[in-house]
Amino acid sequence: MKERILTGWTFSRIAFAVIGTFIIVQSALQLQWFGVLFGSYFASMGIFAFGCASGGCFGGNCNNQIIHKDKTEIPDFKFEEIK
Fold this sequence. Notes:
Elements: H1 2-6, H2 11-29, H3 33-48
Helix pairs in contact: 2-3
């Protein structure tokens, strides 16, 4: 958990954390407690790198291979060097 919080910061993670914190502060000042919950969700997405703020498939959970209708995989296309 410590590694996930301290590493891999991208612009989107920073934006989610900052905007979520801003929503929390503004909602608390106006006593709008639902807004605090809303801002907490976005701030935690930025801090803990889950959801949209994770920058894709965090931890290698993504499978981007193309699969035919008959369930066979297409091998990756490789470029050949032109001499």
